[in-house]
Amino acid sequence: MDSHQTALENWCEEEWGQTPQAISEWHADEEMAQVFMRLNRSVLIADFTVAEDGSLDCIEHLQIPLDRWNPGSIQAIRTADGRVRFRHRNLDIHLAARLRAPEWGQALLEEWLMSQRGDVLRPKDRTQRIASINRTKMSIERNLNHSNLDAVRMDFLATTASLASVESKLNSRSGNDESE
């Protein structure tokens, strides 16, 4: 990531007129760089190809402006082809599914936007502070609900029962074969 830092900052300065406040790598190698960038009033997900000379060429990007974002509105799922789709409203971008879970990227983007909203809307009185805390609580609850493992547990129990059934049938067959 350090090798692309300057190129990413230059690209952001040219395209967005600002230097990113933070850059976090999703995936980078000799051929590609996929990153999250925190800008002044938005976040950016960008997918770049790396040229032989080390310069970056943006394939696609997804900007999520602070004024169009609501807590929990960023979706991140692993697709059937093994990539990760980040979606906000009706826009999406697909990134490589390497090293990190989709929820990691989603949580990072939400955290950046939440802190930007907090910087803009510093609660001044008790009612505003309570409302801000409730919004944060709702966002956390939504993220926890999305990461619920009940469905995985049910699949695991069903698979375990199926394996036990197959094992008992195999054992009963092997017992029949020995008696013959």
Which features does this protein show?
single chain, 180 residues, 3-stranded antiparallel β-sheet, 4-stranded antiparallel β-sheet, 4 helices, alpha+beta
Can you tell me about this structure?
The protein is of the alpha+beta class and 180 residues long. It is 47% helix and 27% strand. It has 4 helices and 7 strands, in the order αβββββββααα. The strands form 2 sheets. It has a 4-stranded antiparallel sheet with strand order 1-2-3-4. A 3-stranded antiparallel sheet has the order 5-6-7, with helices on one face. It starts with a helix and ends with a helix. The model has no long low-confidence stretch (mean pLDDT 84).
Brief characterization of the structure:
By secondary structure, the protein is of the alpha+beta class.
Distance between termini?
A: 67 Å
**Shape designation:** flat
Helix and strand string, N-terminal first? HEEEEEEEHHH
Largest β sheet strand count, sense and barrel closure:
4 strands, antiparallel
Set down the secondary structure blueprint.
Elements: H1 2-16, E1 22-28, E2 32-38, E3 42-50, E4 56-65, E5 74-78, E6 84-88, E7 91-95, H2 102-120, H3 126-146, H4 150-179
Antiparallel strand pairs: 1-2, 2-3, 3-4, 5-6, 6-7
